[in-house]
Amino acid sequence: MEIFRGTHEYSRSDMGDFCCSVTLGNFDGCHLGHQNLFEKVVSYKPTFPVKKGVITFDPTPKEFFSPAQAPKRIFSLSDKIEACKLYGFDFLVILEFDQKIADLAPKTFLERLLLKDLNAKNIIVGHDFRFGKNRSGDTEYLQIEAKKRDINVTVVQAARDEQGQIISSTRIRSTIQRGHVQEAMELLGRPYFIFGRVVHGRKLGRSIGFRTANLEPDRDLIPQKGVYACLVSFPKGSSESIRAVVNVGSKPTVEKNADVSVEVHLLGGDREDFYESQVKLEFVKRIREEKKFPSLQELKAQISKDCKTALEILTQM
Fold first, then answer.
1. Which domains can be identified in the chain, with CATH numbers?
2. Is the entire prediction scored with pTM above 0.85?
């Protein structure tokens, strides 16, 4: 998959000689609804040669206009790139959303970016897709204008879960923040994950027989305080996943007024190469809320139970 910083880069590449099938959006999390769009892009099979890909925005429009109020990201840009690679796209265009893009009229956005630069012949968008200055272009306008130019536009309705609720990035963020990581996993089609560097903490866990390491997360979207069954892997090493119990919280039994931290305890023993490594942490299920115990012995007994519970959960995966 080739990556382009702007549609102008795409148009100057070898791909610019081809028509394309494309979808547009922020695609934060690349959840099941986004995956529906991706599948329609790659399943397009016309009688002429075509390149298939994605246009996304970095920063997002909300991050550009109101950075302080913009929602926390489920996916970093690199996560999004890796997710797109899994679908076998030919290209990914990353549009830097700036004032020039924001000021484009819907017609100019369509004609310049999608038709002139990309030579789009098949456009897939979600039901709530808006584009152009002040979000004035909608799916109806896109379909009308595209039809005049013999361009196919498919508007995909919102994906829903088994209860009929709409799957959206907004809902998934809320689900993660409330600690409902199993529900988030069902909506994403994979566990919610973060990356981070493993660092030495104060080594308080060793005093009660449970060695832990602190993780410095690479993003702000962290599940609610609590104890979780998780999987740990090393992106630059083996693809093997290691089962773990993770505490997100301030360790109220052993510390007062501590900052929230992410502490990882590997099930099955420690690893010498664990510390100072970059790891991927996948949240599978919340075991319990964080609480303050009357004594270290009671804390130790509860952690033993947490480890057993986590092992049972993770063994079923």
1. 2-156 (3.40.50.620), 191-315 (2.40.30.30)
2. yes
